[in-house]
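input
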Amino acid sequence: MLNYDDGVPFAVIAVCPYTEDFYLPTGGPLDPYPDIRDLISASRHRSFVNWPTQISIEIAGWTISSEGSPPSCFPAPRRRRSSLTLLCFHMASRIKALELRRVCVRAFKIGLSAVLIGLAPASAGAQSLSVPPALSSFLNNGVIESGDYRWLRGRFDDATAADKQAFITALEWNETCENQSRAAMKDRLTAMGQNYEPGRDVYARPVPCRQFDQLPISADVTWSAFSAALDRVRPYALGIIRATVLAEQQVIDHGNYAEQLRTRPLGEQTLRFAWVESQRHEGQTATYSSLERIVHEGILLRALDDRDQDNTAWLSALVGHEGWPTRSRVGDEASSAAWLLVQHADANPAFQLTALRLMTPLASKDEIDPRNFAMLTDRVQLKLSGQQQYGTQWTCKGGKRVPLPLANSDAATDALRAKAKLSSLKENATQIDTLYGPCPSAA
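output
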């Protein structure tokens, strides 16, 4: 057991995945802490780190060895190798803190090259909340179905007193749920050494929190107008979602690690480009009114949010077991697919930061596409510092496409972009406008 500068102790534990025995770096079993044993056994999220000290321990016919990197364990006499998992735990507030801080904070204090992890489930650390009984009539199997906005009835002037109270209850409960989720994400980022206050929608929200999001409709819209818009757009939006589900059932979660990575983005990409279709006023959405477009995109975006968070949980579990999928291991396409899932994990900045830290030492070895590394770097830096290095993240301002705040001049940014095999800022603006359509005219 060792201490931080502030005197708070932490433990370093080695885990052999075959026996699920836990050992200190000296080889002594961690018997004084059975609570930790139970917690780790139930966890799928583990961090692979190097152990520089050469050791070889024989325990009950099993060998724990640091020969090679990372250390490995294998049963005698078959000597089937498997990565030895090393975990560091912050011991503040005793065992309860482990559920929030499953990370190797400042592990270099003992000479370990640690991977700081944010691989806990999206709802880790947040108290599980049940939807209030007053809202149960809106639920089907515990959730509100896509395109069902009955709970929103109380927002409109002609609503009954009961409808208005249900609407208020939904907003109040949603705020409580989101605040708890935001606090849990802040704790996870703090444990990773980041002093960051997650803003709205930049934190991991449990499924119930995502069900009572209001649509950005103006105050003068009536319930009859909203209902008419919903009736027109809902069949098409739900058709897209259903077709996405059917396609996913045929292709995802089949095959080896690389094949699963390549196919996993299918659902979120389908829904994203359906949203782009609406943004560009194309296809079925070409004749939609502004209200109809808001409702249509609201249905799609909730389904997209669900996909993104499901993908984040799926990938974080795999990365926790397998490490980051490199080009040499899974190929360019699968490695880029993993990046795409992380790039769209905006509701979980802790996982995005974890992925960036895993990718950083691999980028110089050409194991990661430099363009992907640049884009994730900007995505994370904008959240943590408000600025970006490569100018890959853009917005509309005054009717023009502009990059979000840059850390350097345009010339210096273009130089960095060239090293990352990206086009110039000017060329990138044109490319984005071609894909998403031009920015709306300034009001």
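quick obs: The CA atoms of residues 209 and 324 lie 30 Å apart.
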